Amino acid sequence: MSLDFDPSSLSIPKGHHIGGRYIDFGGEPIEVRRPSDLQVMGTLEDGGEEAVEAAVQAARQALKASNWSKIAPIERARVLTRFAELVEQRSLDLARLEAANSTRLIAETTVRDAARTAGTIRFFAEYCDKLEGQTTQTQSGILSMVRPEPYGIVAAIVPWNFPMITAAWKFAPALAAGNAILIKTSELTPYTLLLLAEIATEAGLPKGLFNVVNGYGQTTGAALVRHRSIGKISFTGSTATGVAIMTLAASHGTKPVTLELGGKSPQLIFADNEDLDALAAKVAAGFMGNGGQVCTAGSRLIIQRKIADELVEKIEARCRAITPGPTWREASDFPPIINEKQLARIDSLVQKTLAEGATARVGGSRLETRNEGSFYAPTLLEGVTPEMTGYQEEFFGPIASIHRFDEVEEGIAMADHPTYGLAASIFTTDIKKALLAAEQIESGMVWVNQNGRGPEFTFPAGGFKGSGFGKDMGRVGIETYTRQKAVWINYAA
């Protein structure tokens, strides 16, 4: 059975989802376009302070009426498990909506995005009754306890590149820990989040615990960060925006933030790899997947000289062998850039790097296709040095720079980046080299012999340095939505 579908046949959510229903406030209209053909998919509004205030009030009332943070954890788990089941039942609807509205291919959204969203909800549902406090040693007659407690209302601001999965990493643990969640969608890719809020209400989640507001970052996003009733902010996006959010949060209530930001992730490749065809497939996917629109994209290829020329030829062949096309066609294996503005930004960075002295071995320009979408050619850059734009800036497109090394320590040193430290991939059959590199590279995530996380939910995601701080997923992914209360009881008094 073909996965192809007609994007114009989809049912499109309309409005913010606040208090269990769709609602508008008459704000500035925002056209939402399909990246694959740039056609208008629907219209939403910039909610601003009015929508944020309504969502906060709905969350406050829901927490009070439902006693969500105080009910038996197993009851929270029951509701969230039902939520996961309904997501699975609606997985095709979600997968199609995600594919049409974003750069995610239908071949991937059906088997990955929707399924992993349901899995994330189920994973954290199982954690509801496993958050533990502790008692500390004291003198006789004293009981000292540390209790994990929810913040109350938390806000998540999610990006456009993996809108459904990234949001689930935030709303699932926040709800499981006993919080209410307010999510600001990207104005470019709002629809799956709105449908998820609708499904959550259908699953029996108290109305107002899961609210979704639409709008621009500088208006609706800023209103979320400023609101003093919001106890914590979680953000995934660019480093520049993360810095702005952290600054704004500090000046309006000094609330804690979790930030997963940009990256210039290395793929460190040692010469002991024997199957260069299989290796080329992994490395190419590491910077071309989702059109390179991945924060962990392995955009710096650091290759031991002995195999560099042969491996680069094989990677180049894969750059040329793509099948670009609409995200709603199963045969497409290379998606568009999210919009024309982002494509122009990518091309500007590439052209600056070329003007600074680098050369394009393949690509280096817009990709002309039969579609009307914004496609950029997979690009391999040679001669990129640390002072160049292409080394310093995150492309967020299908671009990789090629670097060669001779000795092990030289390659490991090259893998570090002065600004970013989100992820790193190491390809070697030598466990000693793998462990040495993993230990020395300053990065929040390290993969050996693959690029990107697997299907497991226990692996935390987050970076070092300019790539942010705090983690999503894993046990720490739910602990980050709790605060620690110290209780001292003098029962001998």
UniProtKB/TrEMBL annotation:
Boundaries of every Aldehyde dehydrogenase domain copy: 28-487
GO molecular function, one term: aldehyde dehydrogenase [NAD(P)+] activity
Source organism superkingdom: Bacteria
PROSITE patterns in UniProt: ALDEHYDE_DEHYDR_GLU
Active-site residues, as the UniProt record annotates them: 260
Alphabetic keyword roster: Oxidoreductase
Keyword Oxidoreductase: yes
PANTHER family assigned: ALDEHYDE DEHYDROGENASE-RELATED
Family: Belongs to the aldehyde dehydrogenase family.
Protein name: Aldehyde dehydrogenase (NAD+)
Native organism: Arboricoccus pini
